[in-house]
Amino acid sequence: MNSATTIQEVLNELDIIIEDAIASNDRLGLFAFVYRRTTAEIFREIQLQNFDDNPRMEKMDVVFANLYLNAYKDYKLNKSVPKSWEFAFISKKEPLTILQHILMGINAHINLDLAIATTASMNGKELAEIENDFNRINDILFSIVNEIQDRLSSVSYMLFLLDMIGKNSDEKIIDFSMRKAREQAWNSTNLLWSLGAGNQDEAINGIDSMVLQLSKVIKSPKSRFVRFILKTIGTFEKNEVGAVISRLRED
């Protein structure tokens, strides 16, 4: 299996996934679209030289992306994939909201893949050297949250009902999920880096199991009220993946 070697190749592969998802009405294209939007923004920031070490960030971002791309390809070929990714992939036919599909992808990719990619990129180096750039990506993610949240409301008409859950709005729920995911990813990165190359398999499996449990909560929250709200939201959403992505794409 050939892996992407540049961010542009990553974007090209994501475009293929998205277009295939539109053609087959496959909800896996929802996370792929959000991830492409994020990757394109990171690429732009690298081109603007806005990271402490831009070449290093490009290499890390490619490693990071390939973990998702390879998991997606292996799943399509009925090969073994990490448990958290398998759960997200097989849930595509479940009657979940657009937001839930996106969050399961975010959970698997950030909580599992990001730690692995960052550790691999900093093998033999001091992990602290990349912390500023690692945290800077948070700002990019949060800027995209507002954009995605605004556009989701045009295809998920009852999304405002999430305002009823505590003090969180739909935007804050996504924002919080991303923030907590990246905090956990940095903790997991420290763990894997401290173990060193060749000694990480057991820890990675443990992280994968933890991420799987988080995905199960995203899919079926413990609160009956939250489950009712999500079911109501899903009832009034657009079901055509092409229509959803088209609205999310609009300038």
Structure description:
This protein has helices spanning about 5-25, 30-45, 55-75, 85-90, 100-120, 130-150, 170-195, 200-220, 225-235, 240-250. The chain is about 70% helix and about 0% strand. The protein is globular. By secondary structure, the chain is an all-alpha fold. It is built from 10 helices and no strands. Helix 1 (about 5-25) runs antiparallel to helix 2, helix 2 packs antiparallel against helix 3 and helix 4 (about 85-90) packs parallel to helix 8 (about 200-220). It has one domain (about 5-250).
Mean pLDDT: 86
Regions with little confidence, pLDDT below 50 for 5+ residues = 166-172
The amount of helix comes to over 70%
* Proportion of residues in β-strands: under 5%
The topology string of helices and strands comes to HHHHHHHHHH
Number of domains: 1
Q: Radius of gyration over alpha carbons?
A: 18 Å
Query: How many DSSP E strands?
Result: 0
Report the structural category: mainly alpha
Keywords:
251 residues; mainly alpha; 10 helices
How is the secondary structure organized here?
Elements: H1 7-24, H2 28-47, H3 54-76, H4 83-90, H5 98-121, H6 131-152, H7 170-195, H8 201-219, H9 224-235, H10 241-249
Please summarize what this structure is.
This protein has 251 residues and is mainly α.
